[in-house]
């Protein structure tokens, strides 16, 4: 299910906006701004009660526009249940946990697991996935992305960690299918610049 679900959600997109740690109203406002500019892949980390509240509000706003919203930092089966109840369309994790991936997919939410090594990638592939989140991307570097496409040519990689409008193109050119931008979105100039990649 991972491949088909994430292909449908992410296919053709170049940017995933991660709206982390902001007040609920700000999260929804940034999501709406991103959608208006064509950045329609949005993730709201739901590590705590405030994150879950922001996720619920963003899911409601996205439903009005026909845009699904994913939940980030989902690392336990209990979180899977919480974000499913909040209406998340997909889940994202900083690492790979086969139990979390299976629970998410059983709940109807494709899962994007984090990887940093070939062994991580092999684990995801064994679990039936092809989409992975390379984290932390700037620590791994663009050479890592090029190298991973040798043994894993079908892999679809989302570069996450340290991404912004200045370096996104470099990682896309190195083989990332998408870039995920989080803390850089605190700069109001980032979304318009990132929209140029869409």
Automatic annotation (TrEMBL):
Keywords: Carbohydrate metabolism, Lyase. InterPro entries: Aldlse_KDPG_KHG (IPR000887), Aldolase_TIM (IPR013785). It comes from the Bacteria. Belongs to the KHG/KDPG aldolase family. PANTHER family: 2-DEHYDRO-3-DEOXY-6-PHOSPHOGALACTONATE ALDOLASE-RELATED, 2-KETO-3-DEOXY-6-PHOSPHOGLUCONATE ALDOLASE. Homotrimer. This is KDPG and KHG aldolase. It comes from Nocardiopsis dassonvillei (strain ATCC 23218 / DSM 43111 / CIP 107115 / JCM 7437 / KCTC 9190 / NBRC 14626 / NCTC 10488 / NRRL B-5397 / IMRU 509). The lineage of its organism: Bacteria, Bacillati, Actinomycetota, Actinomycetes, Streptosporangiales.
């Amino acid at each position: 299910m991972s491949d088909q679900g994430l292909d449908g959600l992410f296919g053709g997109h170049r940017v995933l906006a991660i709206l982390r740690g902001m007040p609920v109203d700000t999260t929804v406002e940034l999501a709406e701004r991103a959608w208006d500019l064509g950045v329609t892949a949005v993730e709201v980390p739901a590590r705590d009660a405030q994150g879950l509240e922001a996720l619920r509000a963003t899911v409601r706003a996205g439903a009005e526009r026909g845009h699904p919203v994913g939940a980030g930092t989902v690392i336990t089966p209990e979180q899977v249940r919480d974000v499913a109840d909040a209406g998340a369309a997909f889940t994202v994790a900083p690492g790979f946990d086969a139990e979390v991936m299976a629970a998410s997919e059983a709940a109807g939410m494709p899962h994007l697991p984090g990887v940093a090594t070939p062994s991580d990638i092999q684990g995801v592939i064994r679990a039936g996935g092809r989409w992975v989140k390379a984290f932390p991307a700037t620590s791994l570097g663009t050479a890592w992305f090029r190298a991973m496409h040798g043994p894993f040519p079908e892999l679809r990689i989302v570069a996450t960690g340290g991404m912004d409008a200045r370096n996104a193109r470099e990682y896309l050119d190195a083989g990332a299918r998408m870039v995920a931008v989080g803390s850089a979105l605190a700069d109001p100039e980032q979304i318009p610049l990132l929209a140029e990649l869409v």
